[in-house]
Each structure stands twice: as structure tokens, then as C-alpha cells.
Amino acid sequence: MTNRRTMPRIRVVQTKPTQVKINVTILNELGLHARPAMAFVDLAHQFESDIRVSKGAHQVDGKSIMHMITLAATQGTELVIEADGPDALEATARLQSLVDNRFEE
Amino acid sequence: MKLSDFVSKDAIIAELDATSRDDAINELVDALVATNVVAKSLRDQLIKQILAREKKGSTGFGKGVAVPHVKHEKIKQMSACIGVSQKGVDFNALDKEPVYSVVLLLSPQDKPDEHLQAMETIFSALQKDTFRKFLRQSTTRDAVWDLIEEMDAQQIQG
């Protein structure tokens, strides 16, 4: 007698993309200069989700280093990170910890 | 912040001789030394630091542009030099493509916010397809400077 028949046979398939939006503050003294911007972009590229980053009304592609640098995010700047895709939750969590850890500077 | 606030007109090189990253950086720093923007005594140290920075991660961010930069305590005022290459420079760019426009930025050590503003100004320009195209087509210092002034006056689209 197996209990397999009694177990629900539901396979969870996430078909709907998820959208996650978080706020972060740039903490490191030098701000989001080229090296941390590159670290951000490198990490963003590990995810399938689209990543958008905004400072006020200025929104850029979080996977483009040239775009990220135009944020000119100095120490204390608040940014909004939006991820849209199947791994949006993990992407935002990892990006948040990168920013919170001052890009390991 | 505008490009003309920190780009040194007299140091613009419309036709870079260099075809390698290291030679291009030497050529640009030499142009800043020759125009008295940078003290000669700083030359070797700056080049060494800029190259060390490049080895940690290329500033050839793709689309045929590179923005090598350095912060130094002896630099009191931010300055930049632009080099245009017709032949293309092997800059170890992220997209492995040759670089046709190099913007070398020297910043004071203690003004990180100013440095970020200058980088923003540079990349807002370099992101524009038309700016990159016109820059690459410029074969004289005056042509490069005209383009910079047009960019500053927001006359460059897309």
C-alpha cells in the first residue's frame, strides 16, 4: 500500500512573471562608481529577470554598466530596484545585500 | 556638469597613434603633461595607477568606448582628455571589440561626488549613438571640441 495516490499531484509551475520592487541606499563613501556599478551589473546578469534601477525619475537598465554609471549615485542616494521575471525575488535579495554590504569596499 | 567644464581642449587627440591600451594611456597622459594640465613629475605614477585600475577590470565598457580613470591626491582639479582613434585600440574591452574613443579622467582624491558627476556626464554623451558616431568621424581637435559644445548645449539627439 503506497500513499502515493493520496498525495496531491500538483506540480507547481510558476508561469506568471513576478515583479519585485525594493528600495536601497548607497552606503559606501565613494558611491556607485565604476567598480561597484560593474559588480552590480555582473550580479544582475546572473538572473533572467529584467532589472531596472531608478534614482527619482531617472530609470536605467540594471544590466548595462554604461546606464548604471549615469545614475551618479553618491553616498546616501536612495535607489529603487525593480526586477521583473521568474527569479525576481532572488535577484532583488542578492542585489540588496550587495548594496547593503557596500559592494565589499 | 558639462563636458567642457573638465575636458581639456588643448589636450584632445583627434588621431591617436596608439593601437594598444597601454600606448593609448601613455599618449593621453603625455598630452595632459604637454599642455600643463598635469605636472610632469606625476606622469609615471598616474600611468602606473591607471593601468593597475584597468587590470582590475577594463573600463572598455563596450560600444567602442573606454573611460580609464584615476583619483590622485595631487590632482587638485578634475580634468579629462579625449582621444579618438581611426584604427581602433585593443583595450581589452568587455565586448572584446576595438575602442575608437577614449576618455581619460583624472579626479581629485577627496571629491568622490564630483567624480561621479563627471562620469555621468561622460556616459550620458557616450551612450548616444550619434555622439559616438560623430566623435569617431572627427579628425581634428576643433571638430571634437565643436561636438563637445553641441553635446553640452543638448543639441545632440539619440
Summarize the structure.
Chain A is α+β, with helices and mostly antiparallel strands and 105 residues long. Chain A is 28% helix and 25% strand. Chain B has six helices and four strands.
Topology:
The complex is a heterodimer of chains A (105) and B (158).
Chain A: E1 18-25, H1 34-44, E2 50-55, E3 58-61, H2 65-69, E4 78-85, H3 88-100
Antiparallel strand pairs in A: 1-4, 2-3, 2-4
Helix pairs in contact in A: 1-3
Chain B: H1 3-6, H2 21-34, H3 43-56, E1 65-66, E2 69-72, E3 79-89, E4 99-108, H4 112-126, H5 129-137, H6 141-152
Parallel strand pairs in B: 1-4, 2-4
Antiparallel strand pairs in B: 3-4
Order of helices and strands of chain B: HHHEEEEHHH
Q: Could you say which overall geometry of chain A the principal axes of the C-alpha atoms support?
A: globular
Instruction: Give the count of helical stretches of chain A.
Output: 3
Largest sheet of chain B: 4 strands, mixed
What's the assembly state of these chains? heterodimer
Q: How large is the share of residues in beta strands of chain A?
A: 15-25%
CA radius of gyration of chain B is 14 Å
CA radius of gyration of chain A: 18 Å
Count of DSSP E strands of chain A? Answer: 4
Largest sheet composition of chain A: 4 strands, antiparallel
Distance from first to last alpha carbon of chain B: 19 Å
Distance between the termini of chain A: 59 Å
- Determine the structural class of chain A based on helices, strands and strand pairing: alpha+beta
Number of strands of chain B: 4
Largest interface: A-B, 18 and 20 residues
- How much helix is in the residues of chain B? 40-55%
Mean pLDDT of chain B: 96
